[in-house]
Amino acid sequence: MNYSVEYTVLCNKGHVRPTNQDNFWCMGEYLARDNEGLEKPLTGSVSAKETPAFALFDGMGGEQQGEAAAHIAASNFDTLYNECPKNDIKQFMLDACARANTEICAHAEKERLRSTGTTAAMLMFGIKEIFVCNVGDSRIYHFSDSKLTQISHDHTTTDTLDNMPALTQSLGIPETEYTISPYVAKGVYNKKDIYLLCSDGLTDMVADSDIEKIIAESPSITKSGDELLKKALEAGGHDNITIILCEIQRHMPNILSKLRRRS
């Protein structure tokens, strides 16, 4: 039996931010450095045999040129995906983080920026396994049997003067200062499993319990994406919002077609 991954991608500037500093990578599609998000959802389907990959990059709004850092990460992922073998997906994802970190640091030095950076959340499918990787607080969730579970790891701390969460890791940190340690995990996937990648423009506005309810009650991931974006905007849309939803579909072999070819 063959599997395919159906997907929908939404990216919205929100109501408050003057620019969109989020970016993503979806089977060769990503945004220009300066953009206003997506005018409409990006949807499609890809066979698991093609190593489906999805990534999200949230440029750090408090830093300089966060949109440039996110675009560099997306562009780097595109180059790596097209040029490098993917027989070792875990190593591929680690290499993507390392190369993006190096290129963002080089950009910061060239532009004489004090600091710049982006989060990263990546999801890739092998023939039988799924791999997740993240740096920062952009999240990845798994939805199955009506239950939503976070499968990424937040690189944050509340050990700050105002007790507000602060990132402990991001892409764009010089190796002389700190060595990034991406979180990587793997697992099996099954028919009808749904995966969600999102920037904190969603999770800061919509509680996990509400995200779970919306996905559970929606007839499709396209409807889920529309409703999640609507909910985040209605809650204030204080940040850029990027949502990537993927659903596993199983395709039974066409036995009749095979019999006809043999006869």
Shape: globular
Q: Uncertain spans, ≥5 residues at pLDDT below 50?
A: 255-260
Q: pLDDT average, as an integer? A: 93
Helix fraction bin: 25-40%
* Major beta-sheet overview: 6 strands, antiparallel
Based on CA atoms alone, the radius of gyration comes out at 19 Å
Structural class: alpha+beta
What letter string, H or E per element, gives the SSE order?
A: EEEEHHEEEEEEEEHHHEH
**Largest sheet strand order:** 3-1-13-12-7-8
Number of E-type strands: 13
Q: Please tally the helical runs, counting DSSP H or I stretches of 4 or more residues.
A: 6
How widely separated are the two ends?
A: 22 Å
Strand content: 25-35%
What is the topological layout?
Blueprint: E1 2-12, E2 22-26, E3 42-47, E4 53-58, H1 66-83, H2 89-110, E5 120-125, E6 129-135, E7 139-144, E8 147-150, E9 156-157, E10 166-167, E11 183-188, E12 194-198, H3 200-203, H4 208-217, H5 221-234, E13 241-251, H6 255-262
Antiparallel strand pairs: 1-3, 1-13, 2-4, 4-5, 5-6, 6-11, 7-8, 7-12, 9-10, 12-13
Helix pairs in contact: 1-2, 4-5
